[in-house]
Design a protein that fits this description.
- This protein is an alpha+beta fold and 1006 residues long.
- The protein folds into 4 domains: 5-328, YVTN repeat-like/Quinoprotein amine dehydrogenase (Methylamine Dehydrogenase, Chain H, 7 Propeller); 332-617, 7 Propeller (Methylamine Dehydrogenase, Chain H), CATH 2.130.10.10; 631-729, Immunoglobulin-like (Sandwich), CATH 2.60.40.10; 843-1006, Histidine kinase-like ATPase, C-terminal domain (Heat Shock Protein 90), CATH 3.30.565.10.
- The chain contains 12 helices and 70 strands.
- A hairpin with a 5-residue loop joins strand 14 (174-177) and strand 15.
- It is elongated, with a radius of gyration of 59 Å.
- The two termini are 112 Å apart.
Amino acid sequence: MRMESAAWWWLALVLGLRPATALDPNTRITQYFHTAWRVQDGVFEAAPNAVTQTADGYIWIGTGSGLVNYDGARFDTWAPPPGKSLANPTIVSLLGSSDGTLWIGTAGGLLSWKSNDLREHLRNRIDEIIEDRKGRIWAARARTAEPGGLCLVTGEHPACFGGDDQMKLPNAGTLAEDVHGNLWVGGPNQLLRWHDGSFQPYFRDRLARLGATNGVESVAAAADGSVWVSVPKEKGLGLLQIVDGRPKQVVLDGVKKQEFTTLFVDREGSLWLATADDGLYRYYGGQVEHLRGEDGLSSNTINGFFEDREGNLWVMTSKGLDFFRESRVVTFSTSEGLSSDVAESVLASDDGTVWIGNRGNLDAIRAGKVTSIPVPGRRVTALWQDHARRLWVGIENRLTIYDQGQFHQVNRPDGSPLGIITAIGEDREQNIWAVANPDRKLFRIRDMRVQEEFSQPRIPPPRCVTEDPTGGVWLGFTEGFGHYRDGKLDIVKQTSAASLMAEADGSVWVSTRAGLVRWKDGRMQTLTSKNGLKCDAIYSAIRDDHRTLWLYTKCGLIGVADSELERWWREPGSVIQSRILDALDGARPSSSPFQPTASKSPDGRLWFANDGIVQMFEPNRSSQNHPAPPVYVERVRADRKEYPIEAVILPPHPRDIEISYTALSYSTPQRVRFRYKLEPRDQDWQDAGSRRQAFYSDLPPGRYRFQVTASNSDGVWSETGAAVGFSIARAYYQTTWFYASCVAAFLAMLWGLYRLRFYQIRREFNAQLDGRVDERLRVARDLHDTLLQTIQGSKIVAEDALDEDADPIRMRRALESVMEWLGRAVEEGRSALNSLRGSTMKENALAEAFRRAGEECRLLRSIEFDLSVEGAGQEMHPIVRDEVYRIGYEAIRNACVHSGANRLTVELRYAESMTLRVKDNGKGIDPNVAANGKTGHFGLIGMYERASRIRGKLTLSSSPGLGTEVKLVVPRKIAFLTLAPVRPNWYKKIRRAFGGGDRSHLAARR
């Protein structure tokens, strides 16, 4: 795809952009930064045919298999929206128009892509697409059966021209618009100039006579109004330049084949020419440069050119994509014409010539051209230009003067050479000072003769020398530096001096491996990485025309403004601001044993030698003029699912949120820096460095706004940046109603706990009250069942004795009985009192207690008593045992005293429950009395109360004349402390069926 320079300038004006400077035409192609992406490396599936840049700043690459998007860091294959497709995947041409539309020319038609909408406009192959200064889209259509090769795409119905007999342009292959608004159209057999519906043919008849099938290969319009045209050489034309409507043939020197498939004019006016098998050429100022695959180009077959907004050049080849950008630090090596890559010193003379000490030659750069002067030796060492503009050159172990094309040797008085010259300088008295190895002696030379020779101990072995503008010279030693004047040497101990730079105020800058030392007025300070330098190893230092001090260091070329240096001099602990040019800018610093290694030419350019190559930096041209890059948020992913940028609503509890962003700067994308902020989570900007993703894993539900901004390679930050809003949905337990429900439940729980506590307190109070009442009732029952009954029995005996008061013997017996009964009453009273403290019996003695009760009954009257126990006796709860005993004792006493029975049976059974049965054959009880008790008596009532207290079931059955039966059943889980296993009935039946039977009674007996 070939977009002309004039159209680019106009497009930039429409978009409100300031186009960056294009590639410097004075810099050789080999000196540009060159990056190649090859198809064989898997970057593209097929060879690139076209490149363009859309209004948003993205680079689009059309290949033989589809479309690729590039943001400076990633190549992404573009996919059409669902339900849409390219009619043909082979992309032939591309255009990013001013309205943001991407126009896609394929081998099958013309399509447009904007706002996620893909539309088709034309059929057949589209070789080129351009936008004119009025914003109209033109397409060159080829290989079509439909009439018209030139098409204007407006609205839904494109208009195509050239199908009539007069115009005769059924096919078109190339388009260009000149600065006057003329549209130049190249076809198989002619070149047309089209303007507002009228046209003028060029070469129609000549091309037709030659039988041209390809016709015009390419057309390119230059900013000076001229138009370049490429026609196959065998047609007799080759490369043409049309100026003011008149064509002329241009023959490029040194080009074997004057056949070019594509022409392109960049913004600096350089003409780039593509060939089918011979790489690319550049033509500027009458000079031709050539670059082939052997020089690093991905292929010798060139498909086209494109220049982006930053002035970078993109070259499409048959095997890949090549990218060229400016190198701020320009390198000169054998590729640019140096005699060898062993450049050890550099000196810029007053006439603008840059002299380079190289192996076997003295190289010179003049007006961009390199020439080499053979020297009488294998090695050029130190260089210097004296006040008479003579060039002093160290060659091998000799010191020479190069003047008028001749080398004149300077020797000792005895005629012997001085040695290997490492440094040369001149003081203001016009004495030449030279440092020579291997003895590192210092020579003072005047009128081309050695006047003095200095050696130890007079002067330590020096390494470098430079003039002091105030008088004398500065000398650098292996352990410091010093000043020599009028026979006096003042030495300052310091680390080894690599080079010296003296200033007019008498101060000196000393480059060392431990920092930059400044000495002034007897005071010395060292500028190191602690003060903001990127590294401490300094090779050389030099000032530019703006008083900026440039340091050639181990980590790159560092520039420090004079104001920063003065601030550091006043405040030694301060941190300075500096600018660094590193490997990404072309800097390749290294040290050299010879001087000078840094020099400034009259045009302000700085030159450095690094013992291999020579590097040049132009401070006046390398100002920070690149605009801030546009910034975009590309995608939002959560838990490996991508969400549309327009409306990002994430589900509850996203564990892995990834936000990808980018900044479109292609010159040095490695230098793009990002910072972002997530509102309201982040209070300050987060420095992301060059990372293009932000990650979050701990975000609560709510609404968020992600902002990102970026800076370009010059540190210029975008003011607006980019932003995307998203929200995280709440889980049901994170909603307001859930929180309200929890609060309500909590309050209800508090109320419930309050009510529960209130109930507990009330129950405890009632229990205490009931306990007191129950105790009184129990005491009453005990009194009734024991003491009162005994007293009642004593009363009966006394009444019986009073009936026969005349019989003293009977009376005596009655009194004895009363005494016995009263003694029993005393014992029972004590027993009642003891029952308040503990159980009335020990352990499991119910059967024995009931036996004693039966014996007592027999003392009162003649009655037959029978006691039976079934089952193994088990340990009972003391309270339950006492209550069972009281109930049984009351039943036995009632039967003994009131029933008139002559037989009394007591049964005690231990099984699934504890059962007590007391039965007599007396006169029975009135049903009303059995149900409600007798008025004024509490026997039956007490029995029922005791049964209820132990959760037992008490039943009383009686019939007049048939006796009375009292039955008490207490559940086993209440009656017994240890529950013995109880076999269910089905188990017993199975045991009996197999001859076993229930043997629990045997276990009880054992």
